[in-house]
UniProtKB/TrEMBL annotation:
This is Galactosyltransferase C-terminal domain-containing protein. InterPro entries: Nucleotide-diphossugar_trans (IPR029044). Gene3D superfamilies: Spore Coat Polysaccharide Biosynthesis Protein SpsA, Chain A.
Length: 237
């Protein structure tokens, strides 16, 4: 028996499996979600080759789509918009495939979205973005006990105090054209801050649940770093 019935919510994932770490992390994140929620999950895998097997996909009963993408930079904003167009539930969370949050942060955000009279952008964490190093990720894999992970927080490096990435949510009704992201931004860069300020300036309320976020270790490559086009990364303050 799952703790919460969240069939009015869809969790949207965009992935590019460029290492075993990425696949392992996705499995841990999906296990975490399905341990607490009966819900909907959509995954778009965009890569030069498919790495998520039918067996893997069927084990989580997710809606899955593979898109062949040979680009050097992962166009994340495009795939987030595509995921939103496929969402059929009134509420959604767009998720990176390597982050864990307290499930009560999700519930807290849903309560605020259901009551808000204004357009709303929600984050199921308070901005604190902790990095879970490899040795702790391996330890977590043995039991997948989220409470143990929380209790180890003092051993993790706080990467950001006011992060705007990793996971965020909203209501489909607030995006009538089912378009959320600025596709002129691609790769890892200023997209999270641009989204926050654009929506806030458009009159959206912003709500944050008072829980931290945990980022699971993975090896680094081009799609884990800002693309270098000879242009400065904007500092949205």
């Amino acid at each position: 028996m799952k703790l919460f019935n969240l069939y009015n919510v869809t969790f949207l994932f965009y992935v590019q499996i460029d290492s075993q770490d990425r696949k392992d992390n996705l499995k841990l994140v999906l296990n975490h979600l399905t341990r607490y929620f009966e819900t909907n999950i959509i995954i778009i895998e965009a890569s030069s080759n498919r790495y998520l097997s039918d067996e893997f996909v069927m084990s989580y009963e997710v809606d899955y789509q593979f898109i062949k993408d040979v680009g050097e930079v992962f166009h994340t904003t495009k795939y987030r918009n595509l995921l939103l167009k496929q969402c059929k539930s009134p509420y959604f969370f767009i998720c990176d495939a390597d982050i864990l949050v307290n499930p009560m942060g999700i519930i807290d955000c849903l309560q605020h979205m259901s009551q808000s009279k204004n357009p709303i952008l929600v984050y199921p964490y308070n901005g604190h973005f902790f990095d879970v190093p490899l040795e702790f990720r391996k330890k977590y894999e043995t039991k997948e006990n989220f409470t143990d992970l929380e209790n180890s927080e003092s051993s993790f490096k706080l990467w950001f105090k006011y992060s705007l990435g990793g996971i965020f949510g909203g209501r489909i009704v607030d995006f009538p054209d089912k378009s959320l992201e600025n596709e002129n931004i691609y790769g890892w860069g200023p997209d999270d801050k641009e989204r926050y300020y654009r929506l806030r300036n458009a009159g959206f309320d912003v709500y944050r649940a008072n829980y931290p976020l945990y980022h699971l270790f993975h090896s680094r490559n081009a799609n884990s770093k800002p693309p270098n086009f000879g242009l400065p990364i904007l500092d949205w303050t």
